[in-house]
């Protein structure tokens, strides 16, 4: 199993990176291959943390690129450096729960028909003991397939996939946002079965400033282009395409304050998936 930490770039906070790396190396199942991609030059503080962990953990392999080219490029390049068939990934400011790798690895070993596995995530702002919400996603492959027609069916920082499943569809898109959603669609259409564990295996650092960074005409146009490509692939119908574009395009161009309100008050409460299973599960707030 290879663990691929997301691309690291100069705006990341050193203390967040340190906590994220600690969560990887303190897993109940520790990999012998951890790949960290530096997407462009880092500041002295960040590079100091990276070099410290390179010395402490020989299984940490740092891939350094002089120029920042974007997330899609970094994720694709990082994947080529992973030496194992099973690859787990997460972002450099998130925190993996101690049993995440062990649970996902055991499931993938027991279910060779599954090409990718994800999980729920606990969203927090500053303290992992104060959870803002639980971002839930559907469990079984058929549910994932249907859900994907409306929304991203997998929490990207929680995925563990079979490397071949990603490579055979040419990896992440590099020109448009969102990079991950379009990859999942390609994988699903290629026959990949996706399963989501119905528990949170990662603490996701929720940043209110995200709404400002993900707004504007560029993101709105990228969303529309991606939806059009999905339509042309035959994954969604034309009415679903129109609905998706109207919702996503509008959400990108409205004022930041209104976008934040819609996401925190409406989307989180109305669009989080709730499994109909009778088992007792944590409810999102």
SSE inventory with pairings:
Layout: E1 2-8, H1 14-25, E2 33-39, H2 44-56, E3 60-65, H3 71-80, E4 86-90, E5 95-96, H4 100-110, E6 116-124, E7 131-135, H5 141-147, E8 160-162, H6 163-167, H7 179-189, E9 194-205, H8 210-213, H9 217-232, H10 238-253, H11 256-270
Parallel strand pairs: 1-2, 1-4, 2-3, 6-9
Antiparallel strand pairs: 4-8, 5-9, 6-7, 6-8
Biggest beta-sheet profile = 9 strands, mixed
Poorly predicted regions are 269-285
Q: How many runs of DSSP E, i.e. beta strands?
A: 9
Please indicate the percent range of residues in DSSP E strands (runs of 2 or more): 15-25%
Shape: globular
- SS content category: alpha/beta
What's the helix-strand series?
Answer: EHEHEHEEHEEHEHHEHHHH
Helix content: 40-55%
Number of helices: 11
Rounded to the nearest angstrom, the distance between the terminal CA atoms is 34 Å
Radius of gyration: 18 Å
What is the mean pLDDT?
Answer: 86
Characterize the structure shown.
The protein is of the alpha/beta class and about 280 residues long. Helix content is about 40%, strand content about 20%. The chain contains eleven helices and nine strands. Strand 2, helix 2 and strand 3 (about 60-65) form a beta-alpha-beta unit. Helix 1 runs parallel beside helix 2 and helix 9 packs antiparallel against helix 10 (about 240-255). The longest helix has 16 residues, at about 215-230. It is globular, with a radius of gyration of 18 Å. Residues about 270-285 have low confidence and may be disordered.
């Amino acid at each position: 199993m290879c663990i691929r930490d997301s691309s690291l770039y100069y705006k990341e906070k050193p203390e967040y990176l340190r906590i994220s790396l600690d969560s990887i190396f303190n897993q109940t199942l520790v990999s012998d291959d951890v790949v960290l991609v530096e997407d462009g030059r880092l500041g002295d503080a960040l590079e100091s943390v990276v070099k410290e962990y390179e010395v402490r953990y020989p299984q940490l392999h740092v891939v350094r690129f002089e120029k920042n080219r974007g997330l899609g490029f970094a994720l694709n390049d990082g994947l080529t450096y992973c030496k194992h068939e099973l690859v787990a990934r997460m972002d450099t400011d998130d925190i993996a729960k101690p049993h995440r790798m062990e649970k996902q690895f055991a499931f993938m070993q027991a279910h060779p028909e599954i090409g990718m596995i994800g999980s729920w995530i606990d969203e927090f702002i500053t303290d992992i003991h104060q959870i803002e919400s639980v971002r839930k996603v559907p469990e079984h492959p058929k549910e994932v397939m249907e859900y994907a027609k409306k929304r991203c069916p997998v929490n990207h920082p929680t995925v563990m996939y079979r490397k071949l499943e990603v490579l055979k569809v040419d990896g992440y898109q590099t020109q448009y946002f969102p990079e991950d959603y379009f990859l999942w669609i390609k994988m699903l259409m290629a026959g990949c079965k996706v399963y989501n564990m119905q528990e949170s295996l990662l603490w996701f650092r929720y940043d209110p400033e995200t709404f400002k960074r993900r707004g504007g005409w560029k993101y709105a146009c990228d969303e529309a282009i991606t939806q059009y490509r999905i339509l042309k692939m035959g994954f969604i119908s034309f009415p679903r395409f129109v609905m998706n574009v109207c919702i996503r395009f509008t959400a990108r161009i409205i004022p930041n304050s209104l976008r934040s309100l819609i996401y925190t008050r409406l989307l989180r409460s109305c669009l989080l998936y709730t499994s109909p299973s009778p088992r007792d599960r944590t409810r999102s707030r």
